[in-house]
Amino acid sequence: MGGHNECVAAVLFHPDMPIIFSAGEDEVINVWSSTSFKIVTQLPYGFKRVWTIAAVPEMNAVAFGMDEGTIVIKIGKDNPLATFSNGKVV
Length: 90
Description:
The protein has one domain: Thrombin, subunit H. The protein has strands spanning 8-13, 19-24, 29-33, 39-43, 50-56, 61-66, 69-74, 80-85, 88-89. It has no helices and 9 strands. It is globular, with a radius of gyration of 12 Å. 0% of the residues lie in helices and 54% in strands. By secondary structure, it is mostly beta strands. β5 (50-56) and β6 form a beta hairpin. The strands form 2 sheets. The protein has a 5-stranded antiparallel β-sheet, with no helix packed on it. The chain has a 4-stranded antiparallel β-sheet with strand order 1-2-3-4, with no helix packed on it.
């Protein structure tokens, strides 16, 4: 797989949807099709380093843990559901 210029630190195969998330040290989160293995979109949130990705299928959401904090997005929406930084909801 291509799509990243730096190390990939986290990959998530969504348990209910045919998508894969990949992220790492290059400020890029890619969303891939798990059937064609091609990039569907890149998430434009400007994360520095993402270390972990977790799905919340019952909410149709995905959480990303990074150096700066945590963000939770609803799949298919532009705005995050919640962001956490320095122990505070932002």
